Amino acid sequence: MKLLTGEILSNEKYNDSLYKMEIFSPYICKDAQAGQFINVKCSHDGVLDPLLRRPFGIFNIEKKFNVFSMLYWVKGRGTKFISGLKRGDMLDFVGPLGKGIDLSKGENNILLIGGGIGIAPLYLIAKLASGMKKNVFFAAGFKDNSYLRWEKDLIELKINYAVLTEDGSWGEKGLVSDYVWNNIKLFKSFDIYCCGPRDMLKTLQNIYKDRNNKVTALLEERMACGVGVCEGCAVKIRKGKKGFSYKKVCKDGPAFNLGEVIFD
Ligand SMILES: Cc1cc2nc3c(=O)[nH]c(=O)nc-3n(C[C@H](O)[C@H](O)[C@H](O)COP(=O)(O)OP(=O)(O)OC[C@H]3O[C@@H](n4cnc5c(N)ncnc54)[C@H](O)[C@@H]3O)c2cc1C
Ligand code: FES
Protein backbone atom coordinates (compact mmCIF):
# COMPACT_ATOMS: atom_id res chain seq x y z
CA MET A 1 0.00 0.00 0.00
CA LYS A 2 1.32 3.42 -0.97
CA LEU A 3 0.32 7.05 -1.25
CA LEU A 4 0.20 7.52 -5.01
CA THR A 5 -0.65 9.91 -7.78
CA GLY A 6 -1.72 8.74 -11.21
CA GLU A 7 -2.49 10.59 -14.41
CA ILE A 8 -6.14 10.44 -15.42
CA LEU A 9 -6.35 9.11 -18.97
CA SER A 10 -10.13 9.44 -19.26
CA ASN A 11 -13.15 10.23 -17.13
CA GLU A 12 -15.98 8.97 -19.27
CA LYS A 13 -19.56 9.94 -18.49
CA TYR A 14 -21.78 6.85 -18.84
CA ASN A 15 -24.89 8.78 -17.81
CA ASP A 16 -25.74 11.77 -15.58
CA SER A 17 -24.43 10.01 -12.45
CA LEU A 18 -22.27 7.12 -13.65
CA TYR A 19 -18.63 7.57 -14.68
CA LYS A 20 -15.66 5.40 -15.55
CA MET A 21 -12.22 6.83 -14.82
CA GLU A 22 -9.00 5.34 -16.23
CA ILE A 23 -5.77 6.04 -14.34
CA PHE A 24 -2.15 5.32 -15.25
CA SER A 25 -0.47 3.48 -12.36
CA PRO A 26 2.17 0.77 -12.84
CA TYR A 27 2.17 0.19 -9.06
CA ILE A 28 -1.56 -0.61 -8.82
CA CYS A 29 -1.45 -2.69 -11.99
CA LYS A 30 1.42 -4.78 -10.65
CA ASP A 31 0.27 -5.21 -7.06
CA ALA A 32 -3.53 -5.00 -6.80
CA GLN A 33 -5.77 -8.04 -6.52
CA ALA A 34 -9.48 -8.55 -7.08
CA GLY A 35 -11.55 -7.23 -4.17
CA GLN A 36 -9.12 -4.48 -3.20
CA PHE A 37 -9.90 -0.78 -3.25
CA ILE A 38 -8.27 2.65 -3.33
CA ASN A 39 -8.94 5.67 -1.11
CA VAL A 40 -9.15 8.84 -3.18
CA LYS A 41 -8.53 12.44 -2.19
CA CYS A 42 -11.57 14.36 -3.37
CA SER A 43 -10.31 17.95 -3.31
CA HIS A 44 -7.66 20.08 -5.01
CA ASP A 45 -4.05 20.27 -3.74
CA GLY A 46 -3.83 22.11 -0.42
CA VAL A 47 -7.60 21.95 0.14
CA LEU A 48 -8.85 19.68 2.94
CA ASP A 49 -12.57 19.84 2.30
CA PRO A 50 -13.94 17.19 2.19
CA LEU A 51 -11.34 16.04 4.69
CA LEU A 52 -11.79 12.30 4.31
CA ARG A 53 -10.72 10.30 1.29
CA ARG A 54 -13.43 8.26 -0.44
CA PRO A 55 -13.09 4.50 -1.10
CA PHE A 56 -13.62 2.98 -4.56
CA GLY A 57 -13.23 -0.60 -5.71
CA ILE A 58 -10.78 -1.39 -8.48
CA PHE A 59 -13.02 -1.96 -11.46
CA ASN A 60 -10.54 -3.14 -14.06
CA ILE A 61 -6.80 -3.57 -14.56
CA GLU A 62 -5.14 -3.53 -17.95
CA LYS A 63 -1.65 -4.72 -17.03
CA LYS A 64 -0.30 -4.34 -20.55
CA PHE A 65 -0.96 -0.58 -20.48
CA ASN A 66 -0.40 0.01 -16.72
CA VAL A 67 -3.92 1.37 -16.56
CA PHE A 68 -6.59 0.65 -13.97
CA SER A 69 -10.08 2.02 -13.77
CA MET A 70 -12.85 2.75 -11.33
CA LEU A 71 -16.56 2.87 -12.05
CA TYR A 72 -18.37 5.28 -9.78
CA TRP A 73 -21.78 6.74 -9.06
CA VAL A 74 -21.99 10.42 -8.13
CA LYS A 75 -23.54 10.58 -4.65
CA GLY A 76 -22.26 13.65 -2.83
CA ARG A 77 -19.42 16.15 -2.65
CA GLY A 78 -16.50 13.75 -3.08
CA THR A 79 -17.81 11.93 -6.13
CA LYS A 80 -19.02 15.23 -7.63
CA PHE A 81 -15.46 16.54 -7.32
CA ILE A 82 -13.87 13.57 -9.09
CA SER A 83 -16.52 13.63 -11.82
CA GLY A 84 -15.18 17.09 -12.72
CA LEU A 85 -11.58 15.89 -13.16
CA LYS A 86 -10.27 15.87 -16.72
CA ARG A 87 -7.83 13.87 -18.83
CA GLY A 88 -4.30 14.93 -17.80
CA ASP A 89 -5.28 15.81 -14.19
CA MET A 90 -3.57 13.84 -11.43
CA LEU A 91 -5.55 11.60 -9.08
CA ASP A 92 -4.23 11.45 -5.50
CA PHE A 93 -4.99 8.09 -3.90
CA VAL A 94 -3.84 5.44 -1.43
CA GLY A 95 -3.82 1.79 -2.43
CA PRO A 96 -4.22 -1.00 -2.97
CA LEU A 97 -6.17 -1.41 0.29
CA GLY A 98 -8.02 -4.31 1.88
CA LYS A 99 -7.45 -8.02 1.44
CA GLY A 100 -7.34 -9.46 -2.04
CA ILE A 101 -9.39 -12.47 -3.08
CA ASP A 102 -7.58 -15.67 -4.07
CA LEU A 103 -9.51 -16.92 -7.07
CA SER A 104 -7.22 -19.87 -7.74
CA LYS A 105 -8.99 -21.93 -5.04
CA GLY A 106 -12.56 -23.17 -4.99
CA GLU A 107 -15.08 -24.15 -7.62
CA ASN A 108 -14.52 -23.81 -11.31
CA ASN A 109 -17.93 -22.10 -11.58
CA ILE A 110 -18.31 -18.53 -10.36
CA LEU A 111 -21.55 -16.58 -9.96
CA LEU A 112 -21.32 -12.82 -9.45
CA ILE A 113 -24.37 -11.04 -8.07
CA GLY A 114 -24.25 -7.26 -8.23
CA GLY A 115 -26.83 -4.67 -7.27
CA GLY A 116 -26.41 -1.08 -8.50
CA ILE A 117 -22.86 0.22 -8.14
CA GLY A 118 -22.05 -3.08 -6.38
CA ILE A 119 -21.22 -4.38 -9.86
CA ALA A 120 -18.01 -2.31 -9.82
CA PRO A 121 -15.67 -4.49 -7.70
CA LEU A 122 -17.20 -7.69 -9.11
CA TYR A 123 -16.09 -6.83 -12.62
CA LEU A 124 -12.40 -7.48 -11.89
CA ILE A 125 -13.29 -10.79 -10.23
CA ALA A 126 -15.20 -11.75 -13.39
CA LYS A 127 -12.29 -10.78 -15.61
CA LEU A 128 -9.61 -12.58 -13.59
CA ALA A 129 -11.71 -15.71 -13.02
CA SER A 130 -12.58 -15.97 -16.69
CA GLY A 131 -8.86 -15.48 -17.48
CA MET A 132 -8.27 -18.61 -15.35
CA LYS A 133 -10.74 -20.41 -17.65
CA LYS A 134 -13.39 -20.57 -14.96
CA ASN A 135 -17.04 -20.60 -15.98
CA VAL A 136 -18.30 -17.16 -14.94
CA PHE A 137 -21.89 -15.90 -14.83
CA PHE A 138 -22.71 -12.28 -13.94
CA ALA A 139 -26.20 -11.47 -12.61
CA ALA A 140 -26.66 -7.71 -12.33
CA GLY A 141 -29.68 -5.86 -11.00
CA PHE A 142 -30.57 -2.17 -11.25
CA LYS A 143 -33.53 0.10 -10.60
CA ASP A 144 -33.67 1.28 -14.22
CA ASN A 145 -31.51 1.52 -17.33
CA SER A 146 -29.04 4.13 -16.05
CA TYR A 147 -26.19 1.55 -16.20
CA LEU A 148 -26.95 0.66 -19.83
CA ARG A 149 -23.56 1.92 -21.12
CA TRP A 150 -21.82 -0.49 -18.74
CA GLU A 151 -23.10 -3.39 -20.84
CA LYS A 152 -20.31 -2.71 -23.35
CA ASP A 153 -17.74 -3.47 -20.61
CA LEU A 154 -19.66 -6.60 -19.70
CA ILE A 155 -19.77 -7.77 -23.32
CA GLU A 156 -15.97 -7.36 -23.54
CA LEU A 157 -15.60 -10.08 -20.89
CA LYS A 158 -17.25 -12.64 -23.19
CA ILE A 159 -19.04 -14.31 -20.28
CA ASN A 160 -22.69 -15.25 -19.78
CA TYR A 161 -24.77 -12.71 -17.94
CA ALA A 162 -28.29 -11.60 -17.01
CA VAL A 163 -29.47 -8.04 -16.43
CA LEU A 164 -32.55 -7.31 -14.34
CA THR A 165 -34.19 -3.93 -13.86
CA GLU A 166 -36.98 -3.11 -11.44
CA ASP A 167 -38.86 -1.10 -14.06
CA GLY A 168 -38.16 -3.52 -16.91
CA SER A 169 -36.45 -0.83 -19.03
CA TRP A 170 -33.40 -3.07 -19.68
CA GLY A 171 -33.06 -6.85 -19.53
CA GLU A 172 -35.63 -8.83 -17.56
CA LYS A 173 -38.05 -7.08 -15.22
CA GLY A 174 -37.51 -7.93 -11.55
CA LEU A 175 -35.00 -8.14 -8.73
CA VAL A 176 -31.62 -9.82 -9.11
CA SER A 177 -32.22 -11.75 -5.87
CA ASP A 178 -35.46 -13.18 -7.34
CA TYR A 179 -33.53 -14.16 -10.46
CA VAL A 180 -30.99 -16.03 -8.32
CA TRP A 181 -33.77 -17.74 -6.36
CA ASN A 182 -35.62 -18.77 -9.52
CA ASN A 183 -32.42 -20.27 -10.93
CA ILE A 184 -31.07 -21.73 -7.70
CA LYS A 185 -30.53 -25.20 -9.21
CA LEU A 186 -28.59 -23.79 -12.14
CA PHE A 187 -26.01 -22.27 -9.79
CA LYS A 188 -25.77 -25.23 -7.40
CA SER A 189 -22.05 -25.87 -7.70
CA PHE A 190 -20.95 -22.24 -8.05
CA ASP A 191 -18.81 -20.13 -5.73
CA ILE A 192 -20.63 -16.84 -5.29
CA TYR A 193 -19.41 -13.25 -4.90
CA CYS A 194 -21.95 -10.52 -4.24
CA CYS A 195 -21.90 -6.78 -3.69
CA GLY A 196 -24.73 -4.30 -3.45
CA PRO A 197 -27.32 -2.75 -1.15
CA ARG A 198 -27.81 -4.24 2.31
CA ASP A 199 -31.33 -5.42 1.52
CA MET A 200 -30.01 -7.44 -1.41
CA LEU A 201 -27.24 -8.95 0.74
CA LYS A 202 -29.71 -9.82 3.51
CA THR A 203 -32.01 -11.55 1.00
CA LEU A 204 -29.07 -13.50 -0.42
CA GLN A 205 -28.04 -14.48 3.10
CA ASN A 206 -31.50 -16.02 3.55
CA ILE A 207 -31.47 -17.71 0.17
CA TYR A 208 -28.09 -19.34 0.82
CA LYS A 209 -28.59 -20.09 4.54
CA ASP A 210 -28.96 -23.86 4.18
CA ARG A 211 -27.05 -24.38 0.97
CA ASN A 212 -23.50 -25.50 0.48
CA ASN A 213 -22.34 -22.70 -1.80
CA LYS A 214 -19.41 -20.60 -0.64
CA VAL A 215 -20.82 -17.07 -0.67
CA THR A 216 -18.51 -14.07 -0.29
CA ALA A 217 -19.92 -10.59 0.18
CA LEU A 218 -17.93 -7.45 -0.60
CA LEU A 219 -19.09 -4.87 1.92
CA GLU A 220 -19.15 -1.15 1.21
CA GLU A 221 -19.44 0.41 4.65
CA ARG A 222 -18.80 4.10 5.07
CA MET A 223 -15.13 4.63 5.90
CA ALA A 224 -12.87 7.21 7.44
CA CYS A 225 -9.15 6.31 7.58
CA GLY A 226 -9.33 3.27 5.26
CA VAL A 227 -6.27 1.67 6.89
CA GLY A 228 -7.57 0.06 10.10
CA VAL A 229 -6.96 2.87 12.58
CA CYS A 230 -10.26 4.64 13.29
CA GLU A 231 -12.72 1.70 13.61
CA GLY A 232 -15.18 3.73 11.52
CA CYS A 233 -15.98 0.79 9.25
CA ALA A 234 -16.54 -1.94 11.88
CA VAL A 235 -19.07 -4.68 11.11
CA LYS A 236 -20.37 -7.49 13.30
CA ILE A 237 -19.13 -10.94 12.31
CA ARG A 238 -20.57 -14.10 13.87
CA LYS A 239 -18.25 -15.92 16.27
CA GLY A 240 -19.20 -19.37 17.49
CA LYS A 241 -22.91 -20.20 17.77
CA LYS A 242 -24.18 -17.10 19.52
CA GLY A 243 -21.31 -14.64 19.80
CA PHE A 244 -19.86 -12.04 17.50
CA SER A 245 -16.78 -9.89 17.09
CA TYR A 246 -16.15 -6.67 15.22
CA LYS A 247 -14.07 -6.69 12.06
CA LYS A 248 -12.87 -3.76 10.02
CA VAL A 249 -14.10 -3.66 6.44
CA CYS A 250 -11.04 -1.68 5.30
CA LYS A 251 -8.45 -4.04 6.81
CA ASP A 252 -10.08 -7.44 7.36
CA GLY A 253 -12.32 -7.08 4.29
CA PRO A 254 -13.97 -5.83 2.19
CA ALA A 255 -14.65 -9.51 1.39
CA PHE A 256 -16.38 -11.56 4.11
CA ASN A 257 -18.22 -14.86 4.23
CA LEU A 258 -21.83 -13.67 3.76
CA GLY A 259 -23.17 -16.21 6.25
CA GLU A 260 -21.03 -14.71 9.02
CA VAL A 261 -22.07 -11.07 8.58
CA ILE A 262 -24.59 -9.74 11.10
CA PHE A 263 -26.76 -7.06 9.50
CA ASP A 264 -28.31 -5.04 12.37
C1 LIG B 1 -14.63 -0.69 -0.02
C2 LIG B 1 -15.58 0.25 -0.76
C3 LIG B 1 -15.61 0.22 -2.14
C4 LIG B 1 -16.45 1.10 -2.83
N1 LIG B 1 -16.44 1.05 -4.19
C5 LIG B 1 -17.19 1.91 -4.88
C6 LIG B 1 -17.14 1.91 -6.30
O1 LIG B 1 -16.41 1.14 -6.92
N2 LIG B 1 -17.91 2.83 -6.95
C7 LIG B 1 -18.73 3.71 -6.27
O2 LIG B 1 -19.41 4.53 -6.92
N3 LIG B 1 -18.80 3.71 -4.94
C8 LIG B 1 -18.05 2.85 -4.23
N4 LIG B 1 -18.10 2.87 -2.86
C9 LIG B 1 -18.98 3.87 -2.21
C10 LIG B 1 -18.28 5.23 -2.26
O3 LIG B 1 -17.16 5.21 -1.41
C11 LIG B 1 -19.25 6.33 -1.80
O4 LIG B 1 -20.29 6.46 -2.74
C12 LIG B 1 -18.53 7.66 -1.69
O5 LIG B 1 -17.65 7.62 -0.60
C13 LIG B 1 -19.51 8.79 -1.52
O6 LIG B 1 -18.77 9.97 -1.32
P1 LIG B 1 -19.41 11.40 -1.58
O7 LIG B 1 -18.53 12.41 -0.96
O8 LIG B 1 -19.73 11.56 -3.02
O9 LIG B 1 -20.77 11.31 -0.84
P2 LIG B 1 -21.08 11.83 0.64
O10 LIG B 1 -21.31 13.30 0.57
O11 LIG B 1 -20.06 11.32 1.60
O12 LIG B 1 -22.44 11.09 0.88
C14 LIG B 1 -23.56 11.29 0.00
C15 LIG B 1 -24.63 10.26 0.34
O13 LIG B 1 -24.14 8.93 0.08
C16 LIG B 1 -24.21 8.14 1.26
N5 LIG B 1 -23.01 7.29 1.29
C17 LIG B 1 -21.72 7.68 1.34
N6 LIG B 1 -20.88 6.62 1.38
C18 LIG B 1 -21.66 5.52 1.34
C19 LIG B 1 -21.41 4.13 1.38
N7 LIG B 1 -20.16 3.62 1.48
N8 LIG B 1 -22.48 3.30 1.35
C20 LIG B 1 -23.73 3.77 1.27
N9 LIG B 1 -24.03 5.08 1.25
C21 LIG B 1 -23.03 5.95 1.29
C22 LIG B 1 -24.23 9.13 2.41
O14 LIG B 1 -24.87 8.58 3.55
C23 LIG B 1 -25.03 10.27 1.83
O15 LIG B 1 -26.40 10.03 1.90
C24 LIG B 1 -17.28 2.01 -2.13
C25 LIG B 1 -17.25 2.03 -0.74
C26 LIG B 1 -16.41 1.16 -0.07
C27 LIG B 1 -16.36 1.20 1.43
S1 FES C 1 -12.04 3.14 7.96
FE1 FES C 1 -10.81 3.46 9.70
S2 FES C 1 -10.67 1.44 10.53
FE2 FES C 1 -11.68 1.15 8.64
Question: Could you please describe the fold and organization of this structure?
Answer:
By secondary structure, the chain is an alpha/beta fold. It folds into 3 domains: 2-97, Beta Barrel (Elongation Factor Tu (Ef-tu), domain 3); 101-218, Rossmann fold; 221-264, Dihydroorotate dehydrogenase B (pyrk subunit), domain 3 (Ribbon). Helices cover 19% and strands 36% of the residues. The protein contains 6 helices and 17 strands. It has helices at residues 26-31, 77-83, 119-131, 151-156, 176-182, 198-207, and strands spanning 2-13, 18-24, 37-40, 54-57, 60-62, 67-73, 90-97, 109-115, 135-142, 160-165, 172-173, 191-195, 215-218, 234-239, 243-248, 255-257, 261-262. Helix 4 (151-156) links the parallel strand 9 and strand 10. The longest helix has 13 residues, at 119-131. It is globular, with a radius of gyration of 18 Å. It starts with a strand and ends with a strand. The structure holds flavin-adenine dinucleotide and FE2/S2 (inorganic) cluster. Flavin-adenine dinucleotide binds next to strand 4, strand 6, helix 2 and helix 3.
